[in-house]
């Protein structure tokens, strides 16, 4: 059965067929939906970061969206839903989002997954203001430098110098432009680069060191901490899992 994993700087998307999953927790805020909704609607769960949860049954198409809680979308999910509730899991029903979960599972185009995630975020009223901010050439210079072979590990001070800004001003402008703190952006860059190298047949140790992790355990632990998934299991079953990523960002 086909599953898809899509990772970019501000989100991790997963879709496929549910199967029983032991209770687990992850550092990212989650939007989760599966079949079983009334016709013309979509039942959605919003799950707080570090909330213990699991799946007791399986066999249904699902779509899962994970957002860094310090990102703009993660902040809006907490502000509009999780902070106003005593429960770490919120269940709501949304109007028909205009996509089919079974169709999404069978899709092999990453842009379709991204469009579906944007649609859900908009329906929840959590669309980031950064998506409407005009291009900032100062930040673009930093992103372009990070795309070069020796530029992806820039410190905040080095990035600020390229942007011709003070470090504090750069950090503020970067988050406004991307919706993500610079430190967290760098961490996601490392994960994406490591996954990219795994896809090119590097060993876990080779991928971890080349991406800037101290060792393979640090690499896999960071992925599990963010997503609740075992990265080695993902690649062990890679014949059934399509892995998409945005590189460079």
TrEMBL record:
Residues making up the signal peptide according to the UniProt record: none
Q: Which InterPro entries match?
A: AraC_XylS_family_regulators, Homeodomain-like_sf, HTH_AraC, HTH_AraC-typ_CS
Identify the keywords attached in UniProt to this record, alphabetized.
Answer: DNA-binding, Transcription, Transcription regulation
An example Gene Ontology molecular-function term: sequence-specific DNA binding
Q: Does the keyword Lipoprotein apply?
A: no
PROSITE patterns xref list: HTH_ARAC_FAMILY_1 (PS00041), HTH_ARAC_FAMILY_2 (PS01124)
Q: Residue limits of the HTH araC/xylS-type domain?
A: 137-237
Q: What is this protein called?
A: DNA-binding domain-containing protein, AraC-type
């Amino acid at each position: 059965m086909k599953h898809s994993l899509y990772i970019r700087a501000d989100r991790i998307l997963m879709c496929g067929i549910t199967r029983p999953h032991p209770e687990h927790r992850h550092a990212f805020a989650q939007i989760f939906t599966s079949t079983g909704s009334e016709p013309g609607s979509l039942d959605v769960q919003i799950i707080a970061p570090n909330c213990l949860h699991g799946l007791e049954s399986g066999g249904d198409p699902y779509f899962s969206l994970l957002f860094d809680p310090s990102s703009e979308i993660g902040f809006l999910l907490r502000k509009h839903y999780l902070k106003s509730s005593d429960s770490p899991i919120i269940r709501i029903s949304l109007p028909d989002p205009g996509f089919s979960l079974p169709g999404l599972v069978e899709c092999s185009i990453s842009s379709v997954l991204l469009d579906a995630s944007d649609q859900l975020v908009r329906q929840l009223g959590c669309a980031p203001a950064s998506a409407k901010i005009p291009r900032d050439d100062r930040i673009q210079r930093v992103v372009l430098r990070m795309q070069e072979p020796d530029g992806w590990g820039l410190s905040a001070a080095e990035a600020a110098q390229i942007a011709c800004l003070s470090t504090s001003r750069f950090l503020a402008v970067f988050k406004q432009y991307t919706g993500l703190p610079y430190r967290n952006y760098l961490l996601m860059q490392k994960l994406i680069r490591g996954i990219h190298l795994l896809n090119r047949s590097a060993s876990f140790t080779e991928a971890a060191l080349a991406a800037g992790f101290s060792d393979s355990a640090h690499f896999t632990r960071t992925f599990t901490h963010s997503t609740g998934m075992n990265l080695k299991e993902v690649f062990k079953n890679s014949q059934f899992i399509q892995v998409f990523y945005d590189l460079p960002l």
